[in-house]
Amino acid sequence: MSGEHILFETRVGSLARLTLNRPAARNSLSVAMLEQLHDGILRLGETPDVHVIILSGTGPAFCAGHDLRELTAARLQPDKGQSFFQETMSKCSQLMTAIVHCPKPVIAQVHGIATAAGAQLVASCDLAVAERGARFATPGVNIGLFCSTPMVALSRNVSRKAAMELLLTGEMIEADEARRIGLINRIAETGSLEEVTEDLAAQIASKAPATLRIGKEAFYRQIEMPLTEAYSFASQVMTVNMMLPDAEEGISAFLEKREANWQR
C-alpha cells in the first residue's frame, strides 16, 4: 500500500498489480500519482519474482487523464503555472517511457473511461483488456488543449487516420471500436474483467522471464528502425537469445515432448 493511499500494490504469485485509488477524481493523474506510478513501475521492473504487472483503477473509471483542478490551481503562481505545467508533462512522459522500458510486460485493465492521459496510459502499456462498456477518448481539443502527449503513445498503437480522428474530434469510442483499431487487445464481459486480465497475465507469466525481457526490449527498439536495420538488430537479438539456458531448455523440452523448466 502506498504512503498516501492513492496507489495500492498487491501480489498474486508472479503477478503484481498497481491500482490507482483516487475514485472521486476518476483516478486522474496528479503529480503525486504520476510519481508513485513511476516509482512502482521501476521497482517492480527490478523485482525478480514479479513477471507481469497489471495496472487497474478503483471507482467508476480507469483514469480520466491529468488532474485539471491541480493544473488550474497552478495558474495562481507568479509564472501563471508554466513551470508546474512543464513539470507535470515531464513526469507524465517519464512514466509512459518507464512503462515501455520496463523489462516486465505491463497490462492495462480498463473499466469505465480512459480519457486524455488515461488513454495515453492504456496506449503505453504492452497489452490492454477492457470491460465491455469501457470508453476511450482524447478530448483535449474540446477544451482548447490538443492531446499532444497522448498523441505520442496513441500514434504508436493505431493507424494514423484512426489516431487523427480521435485527436481532432475528441469523440468517445466504445471498447469494440478500440479493439478494432488496435488500442486494446481483449474485451471482457461485465463482471469478468479481473479474471480475463489475470488469465492473460498468468499465460504470459508462465513463459521464460529472460525471454520476455529480451523480446519486449527488442520489440520497441526495432519498431523505430528502418526495415534493413531492424532485421539486422533482430538477428543479433535472436543469436543472443539462442545462447541463453532457457532457449536451450525450451527447445529440448519441445523435442522431448515435456514441460520446460525455466530459470527464475
From TrEMBL:
Pfam families per the UniProt record, alphabetical: ECH_1
GO biological process: fatty acid metabolic process
Transmembrane annotation, as ranges: none
Keywords, in A-Z order: Fatty acid metabolism, Lipid metabolism, Lyase, Transit peptide
InterPro entries: ClpP/crotonase-like_dom_sf, Enoyl-CoA_hydra/iso, Enoyl-CoA_hydra_C, Mitochondrial_ECH-domain
Domain of life: Bacteria
GO MF: hydro-lyase activity
Family designation: Belongs to the enoyl-CoA hydratase/isomerase family.
Protein purpose: May play a role in fatty acid biosynthesis and insulin sensitivity.
Descriptive protein name: Enoyl-CoA hydratase domain-containing protein 3, mitochondrial
Organism annotation: Roseibium album
Gene: echA8_4
